[in-house]
User: Fold Pseudouridylate synthase RPUSD2 from Melanaphis sacchari.
Amino acid sequence: MLCGRIGLGIQRLIQLFSMKSIAVPIKNMENNLLQHSVLLVRNKSDVGVQCSTLNGLETTDCKSDTDEDARQENPDLQISKRKLDGQTGHSKKPKKVKLDPVLTTRPGYTAERFDETSYYIENGLRKVYPYYFTFTTYTKGRWVGRTLMDVFGEEFRAHSSDEYERHIEKGSLTINNERVTADYVLKHNDLLANVVHRHEVPVASGTIDVVHLDDDIVVVNKPSSIPVHPCGRYRHNTVIFVLAKEHGLRDLKTIHRLDRLTSGVLMFGRTQNRARTLEAQIRDRLVNKQYVCRVDGRFPESVECEQPIEVISYKIGVCKVSPSGKQCSTSFQLIGYNEQADISVVLCKPRSGRMHQIRVHLQYLGHPIQNDPLYNDTIFGPEKGRAGNFGKTDKQLVQDLIHAHNAENWSTTDDGFPVLPVADDGLSVLSTAENGGPVKVRATVDVSTQTGIDMPDVGFDEKKLTVDAHCQECKIRYKDPKPSDLVMYLHALKYSGPDWAYETPMPAWADVNWQEP
Assistant:
């Protein structure tokens, strides 16, 4: 019996040592796959295929979230183990993809990309000249098994399904650098590429002031209306590109993000070490954040809101308070109340960083931000979503939001401003020479109202305009938005950590007696 027990013990030890010897290479394999995934993400040309932004509605590829929900922007933090664990229901081994050498050897944003177009300023708006660009992205898990047209028709709202089908037919929309048909079924790790004549949408022309600058970090006072990084219909018209082109600050590392309409403290790492240190502090909730906002009604002296938040639709980026949502907490303190205008200025201290957290909590409390284009709307019900009372299902709410915005052509202009059609006889922008080659001619479209970004003191230059005969955007004349329509009364006032603090001045609208010009 003793010999039997010794034999069993030896056998158990052999099993343990065998498990130990196997675990090491498996771990090494996992690390190698993670490193390979990071490389793929870093080498992607910008972020995703073109998506769109409605007025306050943003697709998942276009959102600028904050803190915890925004760490997906950093490639070193965003790699999901779901792919490694096979939770997507597909093979753990991604298929080999034929990659263009340019895509695999050009990481980040190069001088060539910053110089592909230039800015001008007009009507108080930052604008950019249209330019040719190739959107690239790898297949997302939720796309696998769906047809190419199904994905583009449902998830990307920048153009109509017919327009995307035209891109597929002419070969400007490819998979793994090869032409495909519209019914192509997407596979894991497919590389999608779409060549477009890109038009960007306008943002307010305010300067991006530098709050702090040293060898490790740059902190800016982000204006409202401009996204942090390239997303959707914004690229040169983003903080990252403006800092590179106008301030010479390149190769910045994103630490956190602010929503496109939110202004205030925005930090970028100039070194990887500093960026990772601050990311860790945000992740571990060692960073205190203070925001200021202007809301409807008389706000209580102080409120602590700990309602969980759930994403209703990833497609358009809308959230609500829900028991099944993610836990989060925001404390609010009244700064001042204007009885005549019936508005309050409130200090907000979010202890977590869920998407639209402050905006959703304020809506739930019955005091939405005064000019919030999304959450301060009766489409959420007669009480505008107070106490989570919408009077309709989530599905119906999303349908109503999309329908309301599309009904006013908001999906085309991206910010809710009407589209002015151009007469049919004004659409011809190319003629044919005797030798059959295309000759560029001046477009009859009023391009002074088209979209873009500015360089200070630089006016519109017709010589820098490119016009594409097949580009639908070139055939549409847009009405410029008012700069006041590009501002939301939510401002990141101060961020502070264990041994640092960065703060901006109060925005003008934070004075309770302030009146809109």
User: Anything to note?
Assistant: The CA atoms of residues 423 and 475 lie 9 Å apart.
